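Q&A log
Question type: sequence-to-structure
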Amino acid sequence: MNAIIALCHFCDHHGPTTLFCTQAFKYSDYQSMNANKLDDNLGIYLESAPPDAHSPNLGDQENKIRKTTVSPGPTETAQTSPKCKACHAFDENFHHYISYDNSSSISNSPNQICYLSQSSPNVSEVFALVRKACLRTLHCEVFEDPIFFDDDKNGSVIGYEFIIKDIEGRGWQRSYSLIIIMKDRIYLQHLWSFLSKQMSTIASNLKEQAENKFQKDLMERGLSPTGNQSQILSFKKSSKQVRGLTELTADPLIFAKLHMWFTWILRMCSRQISEEFMHGPISEDEQIKCEREKLRELSIDENESQKFGLLMIGMFPKDPFENNESRALLQIENSQDLNKTLCDFISIDSLRHLYRLTNVDKFNQIAYNVIIGNQVIVRGKNKRLVESVISVLEGLIPLGCCKSVHYSSHYLKSYECKLLGLSDQVSLFKDVNKDINYVLDDLNEFILVDLSISSKLKIDSSSLKINFENLNNETLREYIDYTIDFELCSNVKNAFQIPSIQTKIVTYLANENLDDDSVMSLIRLAKDEWLNKTKVFYKYLLSPNINNSVSIESVLAMLNLGRNDELALKYWQAGLSQECKMQIRSS
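Response status: OK
Response body:
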């Protein structure tokens, strides 16, 4: 965590002073500091420990610390002392503690995190921040509760001021404070509860140790353990030297413990809050899949569904190629058979592939009928080709609108199936001249797409043995030249107005600078955007003013849509998931 923890105190001679501070560095930064200001030989390596551990294990370093810890001799005075003992945590023998976070990276790697404790920060800008926070926390009123203050220039601070008993101090007490400084205000506020508890624990540990030392001093000087007001006023100090924290707590290891506590807090802060990628609500297509999966779990088949009035056609779409002939090596008797067999492997790979095979006018006619919910019938001799066209057209609309049968031997009415693949043997017209007014038993608008393939072999069937298992649209071109013809027939009488979603999709398909994956991603995003607009429109349809044409136009204008989008919106809202509809109704 990019923060600094410091212990400050109010010195009778020097005022508010930073006594001890700990901050995190990368190992590479620590190495550069060693080269400039620090001497690694004058540092003591320690592990971290939680503040509730009164006597953390110092290991082999304890003896070294005891020998070098600042503690005045019995004859030292303010005149002979080279510096104020209360304002320093280190002496000339060593001047910092260091800990390494081996869990953060490889040991001694440049990115390994290390925690350095010193009397004050080396960087002047950081020193100024700590100094200002120290002045603000050590004031005349002591609350012994955490406080928070911040500004844009000096960062955010959590401070905790407390009193330590000192028989040599004014009023038998000394003022200390703990401060934690960060630039990230929101992060620090989220850590308020954790940090407040840890600061309170550290303060309690120091006060407890100082209280024990204070009671011992009272007994040695024959004073009452209660320390009444008259004794305090009449008491004379035995020395003008301000005692340091080591003497107040009678613990030569107190700063080593503080380093271990501070290091543990910094390590734990980085683990209290972690960034996670939050997934939003699942998409409508995924919700539709979940609802269909629940129906599968109920084991409802097509026959049983009639009892419940459920339409199962298109509810559980099957793999359009699962019933294809095996792609094993086939026996070809002549060139005609080879040509026919190769044509059976022709398919449409994507919307862009379909767009390139048809002219713009034909594609717009097909796409328009798919998007507004008219029945689209694809009829042809080659089963795989028909199935692939139906699968590709499903990509134009949400999954909830896909009532499709990829290949059927008989006609299905439009309320049963919106995307219908048929064999070329199925007759749709009572009149042999294909009078579109005589479509079988169905007066709804539709468009019929008749597919046919013209092909010519490029090889001699007797000279080459073809492995049909590896055939695809690209390798087919090595064996045959073919074209796919699209013949359209429709009873849509009124001239159609293209919805804006269709215009956007066609623009993506026509852009040759985009690859196929990018085009499909853009189409998916466009569909999601339109589904969100559909939800707003569905909410409006539930309101009592749906017959007000002005209101409909205002809703369309709010959605940045026009009258040409109304038919598509009404069709798409019927394909919303049940979960989505329930949420909209209850909102």
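Response note: The mean pLDDT is 77.
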